[in-house]
Amino acid sequence: LLHTIFPPELRFALLKLFNRVFNCFSSYCYFDITEIDGVNTNELYNAVQLYLSSSASITSGTRLSLTRALNSSAFTFGLSNNDRLVDEFRGATAFWEHCVMQRQSQSLSWRFLPEEKRGFTLRIKKKHKSLILDSYLNHIMSRAEEIRRRNQDRLLYTNSRGGSIDSRGHHPWESVPFKHPSTFDTLAMDPVKKAEIMADLGEFATGQSFYQKTGRAWKRGYLLYGPPGTGKSSMIAAMSNFLGYDVYDLELSEVSSNSELRKLLMKTSSKSIIVIEDIDCSINLANRRKKSMGIGRFESGFNNADVLGDGDGGGAGGGNSTITLSGLLNFTDGLWSCCGSERIFVFTTNHIDKLDPALLRSGRMDMHIFMSYCSVAALEILLTNYLGLEMSELDDELVSEIEDLIDKAEMTPADVSEVLIKNRRKKGRAVADLLDALRGRVEKRKGEGFKEKNNGDVEEQEKRALEMPVGDCDSDHVLEKFGKKDESNQVEEFNLMTS
Ligand SMILES: Nc1ncnc2c1ncn2[C@@H]1O[C@H](COP(=O)(O)OP(=O)(O)OP(=O)(O)O)[C@@H](O)[C@H]1O
Ligand SMILES: [Mg+2]
């Protein structure tokens, strides 16, 4: 009607007037959320699309759009062109409409724009505007982030090209989809310790307000230590699957300086696990401690304050690397470590005694987790997972023999799972093989001069136990086992175990 009756100049003025009159009398207000805001992509548009997708799938709408994003294993529902949806938030109703229009000719545009102009229109009652708008939009953003993370596959990043952006502009981190099947259910370890770790991770992930209130950076450090094949790497994968965090596997030997290390840190995203595996091999961090400790284990010159110092002097870098201990400490604990939030640092080592205590003190490595040789509790989990067999189904005699041998044999969960996997279809055979393997290991260890070999380990554990910050997850365990006994008692204990 407007087109036929009025000339173009008048048409525009009339439309504006009509809108104004309409707005005065309408009890609703309208918000347009366009896909492209000027030249940038509008983050809110994508968030609304994801947010509405969670309710779109359950509404009775007959036509929905279906998408699957790159690196995602989930399908996303969406509103089709010009479709509508009603949402409720804190008692207020929000009406959403997905508007799609053909874009005018884009011959003058310097940037490619899609042919269609897409946007959402939000309609809410004017009286609700101040009440809900801000909180509703924040709610949409956080829900969308959650859905995005849930839908997206985990990513595993590595810095195989070194630590800085190269001449071709490549990002220092390369990523691949991370689909490690290890979870806390499949991890064989003491159930109490496992529950403790899971609770700690859960509290960390939901502790934003706590960290803010106490003025702490929202990050946490875990040190996993123990012999090879006891599940340190599997634990990292389980942590990632439990929290839904990406993993950054930092290859320290590829990083040539402290500033590169810092740049790498700045390029990591929040909600991630930053891993340095075998930290004792990656960098020579032991120098300072060796010097300060002297030669004797319990020499009177043992200076605790020195050992637990803050490490600013730093050990010199090992090999060709110029990364220093202080660079690494700054990485985990300095001002730069909080350029982002919700980060977990995990260091693994087979030799905790080689690490500088400055790296181990609370606040840097908040939890020290000792991954031990296979225990009875861990074996129960492996038997269930690999053979579908409960310990209670076995003969009492068999169980007591296994219980008797398992600690003496010092088999890692990796060793045990190797034995079980070979005969996973024949349960009886698998258990018999396991028993043979346990007996064989105990015999072999006796033959190898078990006593001398293990005294070394005892010394190391004892030394560590004395250095551990009080209250650590493992220090009690180590102290209980070794720390409160003198040397002759330890020898006796191991003699007893072998005989
Ligand atoms: N605690 C465990 N629970 C379940 N499986 C385990 C456990 N420990 C080891 N395994 C099995 O052994 C394999 C090797 O374990 P993993 O790589 O986690 O050991 P690690 O402690 O990281 O060893 P390394 O110190 O050599 O890096 C895993 O693929 C897993 O199948
Ligand atoms: Mg490993």
TrEMBL record:
Keywords: Magnesium, Signal. One of its GO terms (molecular function) is ATP binding. One of its GO terms (biological process) is response to stress. This is AAA+ ATPase domain-containing protein. InterPro entries: AAA+_ATPase, AAA_N_dom, At3g28540-like_C, ATPase_AAA_core, Mitochondrial_chaperone_BCS1, P-loop_NTPase. SMART domains: AAA (SM00382). It catalyses: ATP + H2O = ADP + phosphate + H(+).
